[in-house]
């Protein structure tokens, strides 16, 4: 049945993992995904350079947009999570936020239609940077011993409990944090793309049916696809916010004294 | 039929290592450019704006306080001036009243004085007149009596004529 539909319309149905790995454009280095990442980098550099070439105290519209993003990350993420210390991390957080947001939004950008973050390699890079940052900052601020003690030993529990708690805390702080950070972003983008594929391609598949009722039902599929596209915009920005907020939180705990 | 049939099914949780490299380089470049050329200026601008706004607020507050103080001062002055004006008005009214009574008193005194002087002179005149009259009436009485006695009383007609003549003399003497 489904094989017949695919033959009729030429669309791969049902959507599968293979849809996330289009053929390379020119070898493994030049693919749609690597080009999208370069595109995001280019867009962000041009945007910030253009809007902040000649900053004024009373900002132009573009400058105001750039400053709003910076202000959001600076005040609502960095300062919220880390207090006054967080402000010196605000520049990195802003870059991180913008990069994730733009690459996520590629998932609903016409012509691109997929986010680079639905390939786990890119979330891994970003999560690894966060991981290294909070470990390095924790060790530098507190020294290796104190940092490990603070990360692993919960004060005020009976000592036999530590046999249970230290492995849990280790898993929590040194394994789960970076893995969940990467997988959360990846999975959101992966699932989002899959949902859009299901409703969009599914709509076309139903439209190609011989049955008039199934053809009529395709309208709901397309409506759902539109709704989900808007939902994806929300998810894109939210995931960028979550990623940066967690990064700030992790670095904040590395800087903090005590448990 | 499925993409798996094409033979390049990739496990989604296994990263493509070329993408790891490209992602790292691209993100590093982005971080370098933005954090070197844009973000420091943005933070500086942020601080400058905070300063400008806070400084402006402070200045506005100071100006407001000064204005309030001036207003208070002017109000106090105005109140002072008002009470002073009221006092001056009251004083003037009191002065006017006292001047009026004074003038009235003076005028009354003057008129009393004039009336008294008139009365005095009238009394003196009357005195003199009475004195003169008394002397004259005595003389006249003596005169009349001597004439009555000197002439014969027998003749009624003559007697009548004598009186007539006496009165005529009297009248002509008074007219004179």
From TrEMBL, chain A:
It comes from the Bacteria. Keywords: ATP synthesis, Cell membrane, CF(0), Hydrogen ion transport, Ion transport, Membrane, Transmembrane, Transmembrane helix, Transport. GO terms for molecular function: proton-transporting ATP synthase activity, rotational mechanism. GO terms for cellular component: plasma membrane; proton-transporting ATP synthase complex. It is a multi-pass membrane protein. This is ATP synthase subunit a. The keyword DNA-binding does not apply. It is found in: Cell membrane; Membrane. Pfam families: ATP-synt_A (PF00119).
Automatic annotation (TrEMBL), chain B:
PANTHER family: ATP SYNTHASE SUBUNIT B (PTHR33445:SF1), ATP SYNTHASE SUBUNIT B', CHLOROPLASTIC (PTHR33445). NCBIfam families: ATP_synt_b, PRK05759.1-3. Its main location: membrane. It comes from the Bacteria. GO terms for molecular function: proton-transporting ATP synthase activity, rotational mechanism; proton-transporting ATPase activity, rotational mechanism. SUPFAM superfamilies: F1F0 ATP synthase subunit B, membrane domain. GO terms for cellular component: plasma membrane; proton-transporting ATP synthase complex. This is ATP synthase subunit b. Belongs to the ATPase B chain family. It comes from Micromonospora phaseoli.
């Amino acid at each position: 049945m489904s094989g017949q539909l695919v033959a009729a319309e030429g669309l791969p149905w049902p959507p599968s993992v293979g849809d996330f790995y289009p053929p390379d454009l020119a070898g493994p280095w030049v693919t749609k995904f690597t080009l999208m990442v370069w595109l995001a980098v280019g867009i962000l550099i041009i945007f910030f350079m253009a809007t902040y070439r000649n900053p004024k105290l009373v900002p132009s519209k573009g400058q105001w947009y750039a400053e709003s993003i910076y202000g959001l990350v600076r005040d609502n993420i960095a300062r919220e999570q880390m207090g006054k210390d967080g402000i010196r991390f605000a520049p990195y957080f802003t870059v991180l936020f913008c990069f994730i947001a733009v690459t996520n939004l590629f998932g609903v950008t016409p012509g691109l239609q997929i986010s680079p973050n639905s390939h786990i390699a890119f979330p891994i890079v970003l999560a690894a940077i966060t991981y290294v940052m909070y470990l390095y900052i924790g060790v530098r601020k507190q020294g290796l011993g104190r940092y490990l003690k603070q990360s692993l030993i919960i004060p005020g529990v009976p000592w036999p409990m530590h046999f249970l708690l230290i492995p849990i805390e280790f898993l929590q702080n040194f394994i789960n944090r970076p893995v969940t950070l990467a997988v959360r972003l990846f999975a959101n983008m992966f699932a989002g793309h899959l949902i859009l594929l299901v409703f969009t391609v599914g709509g076309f598949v139903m439209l190609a049916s011989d049955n008039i009722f199934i053809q009529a039902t395709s309208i709901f599929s397309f409506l759902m696809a539109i709704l989900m596209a808007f939902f994806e915009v929300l998810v894109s920005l939210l995931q960028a916010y979550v990623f940066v907020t967690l990064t700030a939180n992790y670095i904040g705990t590395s800087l903090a004294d005590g448990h | 039929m499925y993409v798996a049939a094409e033979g390049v099914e990739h496990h989604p949780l296994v990263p493509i290592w070329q993408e790891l490299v490209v992602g790292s380089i691209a993100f590093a470049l982005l971080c370098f450019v933005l954090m070197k050329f844009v973000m420091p200026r943005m933070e500086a601008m942020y601080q400058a704006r905070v300063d400008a706004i806070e400084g402006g607020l402070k200045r506005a507050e100071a100006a407001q306080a000064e204005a309030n103080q001036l207003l208070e001062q002017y109000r106090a002055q105005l109140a002072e001036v008002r009470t002073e004006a009221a006092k001056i008005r009251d004083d003037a009214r009191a002065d006017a009243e006292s001047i009026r009574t004074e003038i009235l008193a003076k005028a009354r005194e003057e008129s009393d004085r004039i009336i008294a002087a008139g009365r005095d002179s009238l009394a003196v005149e009357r005195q003199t007149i009475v004195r003169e009259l008394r002397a004259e009436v005595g003389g006249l009485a003596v005169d009349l009596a001597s004439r009555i006695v000197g002439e014969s009383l027998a003749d009624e007609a003559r007697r009548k004529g004598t009186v007539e003549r006496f009165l005529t003399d009297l009248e002509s003497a008074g007219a004179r």
